[in-house]
Design a protein that fits this description.
With 550 residues, the protein is mainly α. The protein has helices spanning 24-33, 45-60, 66-90, 105-116, 124-127, 141-153, 172-180, 185-194, 199-204, 217-227, 235-254, 263-272, 285-318, 332-339, 343-352, 357-367, 380-392, 397-414, 439-449, 454-480, 511-520, 539-548; strands spanning 12-13, 121-122, 157-158, 166-167, 196-197, 274-275, 279-280, 482-483, 487-490, 493-496, 524-526, 535-537. Among the domains are: 36-227, no CATH class; 235-266 and 279-285 and 508-548, Arc Repressor Mutant, subunit A (Orthogonal Bundle). 54% of the residues lie in helices and 5% in strands.
Length: 550
């Protein structure tokens, strides 16, 4: 029998994300609660600018030259960012209103500074794919990279259209016409076609700036209708988005003086149901379920941070700086058992008492702060913050393990076994099959841990996290052909792959883009009379909040 052999290349190794799959349930949750807004759709005017851009191109140029369309699109993408930044410099220099999160801003801000100093600025200098100053790699810039999927979901654009993404006639075209009525479109395209930009051009085009939506009344009303789904066009997704936006507004309206809206504050208030100073957050009945669902998101994220910390500190322990310090472990279980018996970790366990995990829970429960007291140092929100900061500052493993144990134990004692782990969220059990560490499995595991000693519980926790990493990385390898392993068993024992240890990190729940969009459409504003320019509701924002809260 003839045999042929050949070299088999190893799979390409990449850094990857979510090495335990613990962030995936969080993504599922905030995807349900804030659909139509993503972590990269930061500015409201892109929702109308991109449909206008292609609609207005179609009305001015022939559609038979895809290469010209791509080049003009890229120039227009750059011009939009430049004019917004220029408007900021000519007015209040408030990045939050003008230039923040504009596409290609990192490259283009310096170009504007040079233009203001007297240098020439050609848009093609930043649009050519072979240019070292290229503003964006994707041929269709920020539209294809960030906004296309969302605009398609909202029926404003058709991402399946060929040869390029198109606006929809039913919704995209009317929105484009609203934009066109309030901006100097001919001047915009003359600059794009000429390629060269002057300061006079940018000043003349300031009506396009991302801050000017509220001055385009019809456009602003149309975008507001989309975000708050005032016409009930998006069914349950529209309702969920409206309620989450209204919940953010409710928090703004409820915060005491001196406290400005931040993501951390939103997490803490949503999770605990309390405002700063342990004051109850009186959420309208129509938004109480939404607040409870955001609390579930935060709980899952806290579990995720604790699990990621176990993976990170385990990899650090398995990756000694010298060969003499290297130990050989032929299985995850042998390493896990060893780690929990090291002198440093043993001293941590002794601090919690040498009894069972159930006794540890009883001890923590006896002095744990109320759930509402989220600014207490012993509260799980603060423990997670200390854990994240500790890893960034290079804290030793014993400190990190103590924080992980405290965090997980507090999550266990807060768990209400009479409620489903994911409440009324649309997350069926089979959706979690590929993500072994989740709120449901954590509840089951915690019951198994109760009769164990704390050392046995920690051994099982470390093994659970490391085995989960292997399972998740193997699934990614099977699905993508790319390796995201940071640990692998070999004939020489467990080996750490690569030199970069993935740090524990929380997920980003679309909060910042949602707040920026509320600012862009004029629903939120800044109170310039307060020292911290505290975020507050505009009259229109209060009206929107009231309508969405019933």
């Amino acid at each position: 029998m003839k045999l042929e052999t050949s070299w088999v290349l190893p799979p390409l190794s990449i850094g990857g994300l979510d090495h335990l799959g613990t962030q995936a349930p969080c993504v599922l949750i905030y995807g349900q609660l804030l659909p139509g807004i993503t972590n990269v759709t930061d500015r409201a005017r892109y929702y109308s600018f991109y449909p206008w851009l292609i609609w207005s191109y179609d009305s001015r140029f022939a559609k038979d030259d895809p290469s010209r369309f791509i080049e003009f699109f890229r120039r227009a993408d750059c011009l939009f960012t430049l004019l917004s930044e220029r408007h900021s410099r000519r007015t209040d220099r408030d990045d939050e209103r003008h230039g923040v999160a504009m596409v290609g801003r990192v490259q283009l801000v310096g170009a504007l500074t040079r233009l203001e100093a007297g240098e020439q600025l050609k848009l093609s200098h930043f649009t050519a794919q072979d240019s070292p100053h290229r503003y964006f790699k994707n041929p269709m810039g920020g539209l294809a990279q960030y906004y296309a999927g969302t605009l398609s979901d909202l029926h404003l654009m058709d991402s399946s259209a060929k040869p390029w993404i198109k606006y929809t006639k039913e919704h995209g075209a009317p929105l484009a016409e609203m934009v066109d009525a309030s901006v100097p479109g001919d001047r915009f395209w003359s600059v794009v076609e000429a390629d060269e930009v002057t300061l006079d051009d940018l000043d003349a085009l300031s009506g396009f700036c991302a801050c000017r939506i509220t001055e385009s009344a019809e456009e602003c009303r149309a975008l507001t209708d989309i975000y708050f789904d005032t016409q009930a066009a998006y069914e349950d997704e529209g309702k969920q988005r409206r309620r989450s936006l209204a919940l953010i507004q409710q928090l703004v309206d409820s915060l005491p003086n001196g406290f400005d809206l931040t993501e951390g504050l939103f997490r803490a208030c949503a999770y605990s149901g309390a405002l700063p100073n342990v004051k109850p957050w009186d959420v309208p009945e129509a938004l109480q379920t939404t607040r409870a669902h955001w609390a579930i998101y935060v709980r899952n994220d806290l579990l995720s941070v604790a699990s990621q910390a176990i993976l990170a500190l385990s990899l650090r322990e398995l990756q000694p700086q010298t060969s003499l310090a290297r130990r050989t472990f032929h299985s995850i279980e042998s390493f896990s058992a060893w780690l929990s018996t090291t002198p440093a970790i043993s001293s941590v366990i002794d601090q919690f008492g040498s009894g069972t995990f159930a006794e540890l829970l009883a001890g923590i429960s006896s002095h744990a702060p109320e759930r509402e007291a989220w600014d207490d140092a012993a509260h799980e929100m603060q423990i997670a913050n200390k854990l994240l900061n500790g890893w960034r500052q290079g804290a030793p493993n014993d400190v990190l393990v103590a924080q992980v144990l405290s965090l997980l134990a507090t999550l266990v004692i807060r768990d209400d076994a009479s409620q489903r782990p994911y409440g009324g969220l649309a997350i069926p059990p089979d959706a979690l099959t590929d993500y072994p560490i989740n709120l449901a499995s954590f509840r089951q595991r915690a019951e198994q841990w109760r009769p164990m000693t704390v050392s046995e519980m920690l051994t099982d926790l470390v093994a659970w996290c490391l085995n989960t990493h292997l399972r998740v990385a193997l699934r990614k390898l099977r699905q993508t052909g790319r390796s995201t392993f940071h640990l692998r068993p070999t004939e020489r024992g467990l080996e750490v792959v690569g030199t970069e240890i993935p740090p524990p990190a929380p997920t980003a729940p679309r909060f910042s883009p949602a707040v920026q969009i509320l600012r862009d459409i004029g629903a939120l504003t800044r109170d310039r009379s307060t020292p911290n320019r505290q975020t507050c509701l505009s009259p229109g924002g209060r009206e929107l909040m009231g309508a969405a809260s019933v």
